[in-house]
Please model this.
Amino acid sequence: MKHLLCLIHPIDPRGNKVGGIDTHVRMMITHAPEEWAVLLIGVDCRGDCVPGELRRLQIDGRAIEFLPVLQYPEERVHEAARSLFASLTLRFAIGLIRHYFVIRRALRTASGATIELQRFEFAFLARLLGRPTVQVIHGEGTKKDAMDSLIKTFWFIHRISEQIAIRLADRIICVNPNILARLEREFPHAARRAIFMPVAVDTKVFARSEFKIDDSIFRVVFAGRLDLFKDPPLMFRTLQRLHERLQGAFEFHYIGTSNPYRYPEYRLVESFTTCHGYCTSRDVASIMSRCHTHSGSAPSNTSVTSTPLVAYRRRGCSTNGTQPSPLS
Model:
């Protein structure tokens, strides 16, 4: 019998939700060893599955077993929950408990199984199932970070869940060196079980593209939520200065579902900004291929799109990898 990789995450593999965690889960489905079987315990966003019943799917040419424990409309997946009981994470955890015995039976069909978790809140299930567990830590903010998600209000639940998950995990993967350094500092007992491994990128979708400067317009793109801790006001003020400095030969593209108008500074850039709203991963790749720089609040790996990064600091604006001058 095949070894089973069990992925537990509130995602519908047939959906288009874009994000680092979702991309990682899809990459694990596609690139798991061929001699392994894959079971995804997730959510049904289309409403055509029965929670608690296994369904065989073909995802990017890979046959997997899909076990939804909850039905959740896809349009709501792209929004940050405003109340605890509207939280997808909480409702998914309840679904895991409700269908625990179905999940246990599904795992028993394999000669061996490994569970991979992306959320701390689901670590309890892996311990109950008694299977080796890999906890991936993507980093979701702290009490000090002003986020759109419920972590800003229920940070203590997230913190307690983190402590429990780290203690229970057999292996821990940190997606950036800062997370690993924090873990080694705050959880020294878990350091020997932890490694750094960045999230993989689907280069078939996010392929390298030509750096086009034929129309002399400098284009900056930002993809993601406009959380306060990312300092959108600073970003908007900096973009407005770039627009002035380039005498209008500048465009800003925003990909995401946050409302930029909640920041007064957005009015500074509204006239030369295109808000694309929610986009599929292929839409994101297409937009980024036409832009020259991805803006962010902190340095990150931008090899995904071959797009240099502009990182904004509270004491001013610095650039990493590119300057506007080559386009002048």
